[in-house]
Amino acid sequence: MAEEIIEHFQTAERDYTVTRTRFIKRELKPSEYHKRQFGNFGTIVPRRVRERLENEKDAYRFVAEHTKIPVPKVLDFLEEDGICTLIVERVEGNIMEIVLDELDGEDRKRLIHNVTAFVEQSVLPQLRKFTSNRLGGVSGLVIPPNRVTFRDQRPEWRSRTFSENQFTFCHNDLARHNIMVNPKTLEVTAIIDWESSGFYPAEFEADMWSRSYRDYVPDEASTDRLIRLLDQPSAENFPVTMIDIPDGVIYMWQTEDRDRHCTLTPSTFTKRQLRPYEKSLGVQGTITPFPWSRERLKNEKKALEFIAEHTSIPVARVHAFNEEAGISSLTTKIPVPGARMDILARRLSNRDKAILLTHVNTFVNQIVLPQLNTLRSSKLGGKIGMTIPPIRVWKRDKRLSWPARTSNTNRYVFCHNEISQEYIWVDPKTLQVVLLQNWECSGYYPPEFEYPYWRKARDEWMNNDDEVDRLILFLDKPGKGSESRLFDRTMLRTLQMNNLS
Description:
- The structure is a single chain.
- A hairpin with a 2-residue loop joins strand 16 and strand 17.
- This protein starts with a strand and ends with a helix.
- It is elongated, with a radius of gyration of 27 Å.
- It has helices at about 50-65, 95-100, 105-125, 145-150, 220-230, 295-310, 340-345, 350-370, 390-395, 465-475, 480-495, and strands spanning about 5-10, 15-20, 20-25, 75-80, 85-90, 95, 130, 165-170, 180, 190, 200, 240-245, 250-255, 260-265, 270, 315-325, 325-335, 340, 375, 410-415, 425, 435, 445.
- By secondary structure, the chain is an alpha+beta fold.
- The chain has a nine-stranded antiparallel sheet.
- The chain has eleven helices and 23 strands.
- The chain has two domains: about 5-245, Orthogonal Bundle (Transferase(Phosphotransferase), domain 1), CATH 1.10.510; about 275-315 and about 340-495, no CATH class.
- This is Aminoglycoside phosphotransferase domain-containing protein.
- InterPro entries: AGP_Transferase, Aminoglycoside_PTrfase, Kinase-like_dom_sf.
């Protein structure tokens, strides 16, 4: 049963609904766009509302998880008919500016004192503990504060990464209308509206809580300085975002060819689909399609649960699978911290590299493959019931659907299908494998599908086109005819050449 609506209103950018327990804000539908009243007549089209709601949702979760700053709890983030909606828990209290208008004398002074002390002694010190090498929000969106976008109305701001952490976390709009207080105790109950928050130079955090919004006049010279900071070039173009938090480091990166945004914390690993505005444009000006993006995440979830139950292969534990506004994400718990083999190998001596490769070969050939070979099926494909071929296949053959096949015997074994150095995580001290990641393309296939990626770094891979063509031939014609027998004999020779048989 729907809750009673206490208040409902619209601005030129949003639709707001307040119930007893929830605060809801969403994008306007095109039919709700406001008309200009003065100057240039026409329709006011809100800019980047979806991105700002995304940024606020990410900020609420980040602040709630890593600080004691009171913020609304995110209840849902959804998309319906192309319209995004953010639903948060309604917090206690009222807006500071409204409460101030009802006070006078000592009570007014006490409220201002309480808020100033809370912001300067609690909020800012906690936020400044977080630093990053990337300009912009928690997920990389650059949504500058209003005083910047009012002066410079460019449609989009570019995020950049540097090799050093030089930005601190800023709310960017700590004004009185974004501070909730208890009208009786005059204490702060929550900080709201984190749409423009992110990692910026510390001077972006103007002291707007100390004066009325009506009295706050942004200094144009100061605003121009902020714009110059946003435009400063980054020669490094560092590929990984690093966020320092009190109990470790958060790493974030994107892999466009996999349609993935990845976040690694000290205890969890999350990967999700890229949001539309995070994708690069192809040569024709359209977003390059990536097949089975959501299905691969679902397949990995099923595979991780299956491997954890039926083998002793070290894998991450599934924590959550979420769907928000058309974007799927998979979060796993990391039981033992480790480093990616490919990254660690770059820092090792030749002697230690040889030791590492020996450990990995032993791990794969004596622990992983023997256990996977005991997991058999008569049905070809992944745990979600569809065939998701290895990356080397779908990079050569771009079809979006592969036939489902069933054999008379359990001839198919469970294959990871991409045991590469970037998905093998090792202990930097012992050089022993602690985790095997990325089971997105895993499933039941002939054992020959398990290509020895772990033996070389990604830039040294030599995918043989003829061999890949044989894999494609098998997927198309996996029966017991001459093509299948030829495939089996040829792949056996390939295995022998790779010293894997």
